[in-house]
Each structure stands twice: as C-alpha cells, then as structure tokens.
Amino acid sequence: MKPLIQKKIVYLINNFIYTCQQSIGAVLDALPAKRVNTARKINGDLFERFIRLIISKAGVDVSDGNIAVPVKINGEVAFNFNYQHDLIIKVDDETKAIGSVKTSSKDRLDKIFIDKFLFNRLTDTATPHFAIFLNDVQRKGKEGKYGVGATFLPGHFKGYTIKLNSLDGVYYFDIRPNMKTEAILKDHIKTFDHFLLSDVWKFIE
C-alpha cells in the first residue's frame, strides 16, 4: 500500500469514528443537568456497541458478556464464577483475546490491569488483554473560563506495566502528546488504527 493512501486510511479510521462518537456525546451533553449521570452511562454503552460493530464488520467474531471461570481446589473444579467483559474475541468458540472499551481511562485504568492478572492466574492461561479508549481529557474551570485537563495517570500506567503485567495493547482515538514521546508510554500505547489493521489479526492467528 502506498504511504499516502495508507495515511489517508489511518486518518479516516481514527477521525471518522472519533467524530461520530463525539457527536453522540454532544447530543447527550444537551440533556438537563439532573440527567448527567444517565447521559454518561448511555454514552459509554453506545461507544462499546459502536466498537463491537466495527470489529464485527471487519470480519472478527466479537461479543460482550460473561466468561465462566473455573476455580480448582486440589486439582478439581470446585465452582465457577462469571467474569464480565466488554469485548470477547473468539475463533471456533475459543477465547483469543479480551478487551475493555471505555470513553476514558479515568477511574478505570487500575481495574483493566488487575483483570488481566486475575483472569490469567485463575485460568492458568496467557489470554491477551487490551483496552480501547476514546480520549483522556475533560473540561475544567467554570462557565466562560473552561479549559482542558488530562485524566490519564502516567505513573499508574507505568507502575502496573512494569510491576504487575503489561497489557497486550492500549489504543486511543485522541492520543495524548506524552503518549507519543514518553518512555514506556510510547512503546505500549497506539492509535486505534493499529488495532484494526494489524493487532487484532495477530490475536486471532
């Protein structure tokens, strides 16, 4: 593929999806103040469905739901408990990768790393875990003097990556500048086009 054509495809993938989702968010933002929490929940749910639809249309078997995790005692399965996931990628009913889809990493980053650690420890597997985020910014200030504040916690991300376990992919539509230049971050965080055009196919090989 010619570099110019590839660049245009990448631009279209990231910016078209981002614009669509932000348009949904803008409409929900117009709801009365008393419905702010409801609007945020709806926005997050629609983003998850949007990403699942995109992955499915690319030809990948993807769903959301629960995975029954067996807990063994003395080598025997004593009981199962359900683990809920936003994205479950399968090939012939075999789980190949598990993903989280969030509009931002705020208050969610820790759980994604811990989910991978616990799931793989409990199942004795090395199932890839990845995360897809819309952006990591939010409004700050007061009306008439609004600004933009970052919600990403680089220290948490680096700490979990080095000392717990690294995720098998972290993807943004609106990637922060420090994610392109800062050590560790630049090696583990990419834009969404990398997932759709390359990494997801590696997961299902």
Q: What is the compact description of this entry?
A:
With 205 residues, the chain is α/β, with parallel strands linked by helices. It has one domain (3-203).
Query: What does the largest sheet look like?
Result: 6 strands, mixed
Mean pLDDT over the residues: 91
Low-confidence stretches: none
Number of helices: 7
Class by helix and strand content? alpha/beta
Number of domains: 1
Main sheet strand line-up: 1-2-3-4-7-8
Q: N-to-C SSE series?
A: HHEEEHEEEHEHHEH
What is the C-alpha radius of gyration, as a whole number of Å?
18 Å
Distance between the termini: 22 Å
State which percent range the strand residues make up. 25-35%
Describe this structure in words.
By secondary structure, the chain is an alpha/beta fold. The chain has one domain. Helix content is 46%, strand content 28%. The protein contains 7 helices and 8 strands, in the order ααβββαβββαβααβα. The strands form 2 sheets. A 6-stranded mixed beta sheet has the order 1-2-3-4-7-8, with helices on both faces. Strands 5-6 form a two-stranded antiparallel ribbon. Strand 2 (76-91) and strand 3 (94-102) form a beta hairpin. It starts with a helix and ends with a helix. The mean pLDDT is 91.
